[in-house]
Amino acid sequence: MNFRKATIEDLDILVTTRIEVLRAANRLDASIDMSEVERQSRDYYSKAMADGSHTAYLVFDEDKFIGAGGVSYYRVMPTYHNTSGEKAYIMNMYTASDYRRQGIAYKTLDLLVQDAKSRGIKANSLEATEMGRPLYEKYGFVKMNDEMELR
């Protein structure tokens, strides 16, 4: 397996994978129109990869694309536990079904966490699907108790 950091030349793979991940996570079939999400994802990746606020890794088996993961960087107000306010949000974890349970997602996750660590960022979070939760727990992620969301 070949793991490599994505570049803007990988935009099509990144956007296609994003849509596939969203369809799977939200149980959306092919009849659901994702054209606006696709357009916005393309815009997001173009800007965020240029300004360094997003890092993605792609995984290949020779020339065949089989996996990906990304991390978005952002800043909130500093706190006692996070004096810089810098945070990393891991997202868009994907492994092709034929390649699951081989450690690919774990290694991708580790590359993303190490990327954040190299920037001095220790506050890493993510949203876990039921399928992904065991992987993240194995890595050391824990369920958050205090965060809330307005719907």
From TrEMBL:
Residues 1-151 form the N-acetyltransferase domain. InterPro entries: Acyl_CoA_acyltransferase, GNAT_dom. GO terms for molecular function: acyltransferase activity, transferring groups other than amino-acyl groups. CDD domains: NAT_SF. Keywords: Acyltransferase, Transferase. It holds the Pfam family Acetyltransf_1. This is L-amino acid N-acyltransferase YncA. The lineage of its organism: Bacteria, Bacillati, Bacillota, Clostridia, Lachnospirales.
